[in-house]
Amino acid sequence: MKPYSATYARILLIKPGAIGDLLQLTPVIRALRERYPAARITIMVSSAGTAGMFTHNPHISETMVFDRKGEHRSLPAFLELWSRVRRARFDLVVNFQRSNLKAWFLVLAAVPCRVLVYHKARGRSVHAVVNHLEAVAPQGIDPQSADPQLELVLGRDDERWAEEKILREKLDGRQLVALNIGASHAVNRWPAGHFAALADRLSRELGVAVILVGGNGDREIAEAVQSRLSCPVLDLVGRTSLLQLGAVLKRCLVTVSCDTGPMHMATAVGTPVVALFGAADPARTGPVGAGHVSIQHLDLSCVPCKSRHCAHDRYAECMDLITVDEVFAVVARLLERRRQEVPQNSSHGTGELSRERESR
Length: 360
Hints:
alpha/beta; Rossmann fold; 7-stranded parallel sheet; 5-stranded parallel sheet; 14 helices; 12 strands
C-alpha cells in the first residue's frame, strides 16, 4: 500500500448520498485537490441530478452514478459499473459509504490501490464536515485546519435562468427571502401553517419578496402553505434544477430552512441561513460558516434525539415549538445586518465553522 506521501494520479470518492451529504464532502474534495494538484478526481454519486451539482466544480474531473436503488439493482448494470471502475485504474479510493456491500465490491474493482474509509463519529460531538475530513487525515490533511466552507459552483446558464426568472416576476430590486419548506424526514419539518404565517409577516411588515423553494417531493407541502397565505409569493418548489436553485438562493438575502439539502446549498453560495432544528443536532449537521443562526428548543428532554422517527406523545413537538415570532425576529435581524454590509464584502460565511445558536 502506498504511503500518504505518495503522489496519486487518479482518486475516486464514493458517496452515493443526498444533497447535503455531498455538499458537506466538498471541503474534502478541495483539500485533496490542494494536496494533489495534478490528480484526476472522480466522485461517485447516486443520481444524475446530484451529479449535476459538480458540473462546474473545478476540482472534479468526472462523475460516476451508482444508482443502487434503481438502475444498479440490475446485475448486468452493476457489473458494467464495476468494469468501468476497473478500467479507470484508480490508485486512491475513499469509501464514504462503508455500510453498503455493493460499494465495497466497487472498491475491490480498483484494487490494487490505497483505500481509505469514512467512520461516522460515535460518542463524540463533531460536525459532519470535520468528520468527513478525518477520512483523509492519513494523507496528511488536518481536519481541524482545513477550510470547512461548502462549495457549489454555478454555471452561467443557471445564473442567467435565476436572473431572468426574477426579472419576469418583477422582483428585481426587491429584497428576497427564501423559505425552504420541506425536509427529507417528516420529523425535521416545520409546520406548513408556520411557514405561511412567516411568509405573510415578512411580506407585510418588512416588504420583502418571499420565494418558496424545495424539491419535487415537497409539492404537497407547498400547496398546504399556499392555501394559508394572504400575501403573494413566488413558488419555485420542484420547479428548478439543483444548480438553478443554487442560483436563486444566491440572490436571496436570507434563507429559512429545516435540516435538509437546500440549507447547505444556501451556505455554499454565501447566503445566511436561519436553520430550524428539532430532533437533529446542529452541532453535527448545522450550517457551516459565520453569519448563520440555528434555532432549537432544548427545553424538551428528548432534544436532540437524532432520530428519524418521533416517539413523543405530541408528534414533532420540538419543531412545533419553534414559533413564527422568534423566526421572524431572527430574520429581521439578519436582514438589517445585511443591509449594513458593504456590497463589495464577499468574505461572508467563509472559512470557519462558527455560527450563532438560539436555544429556547
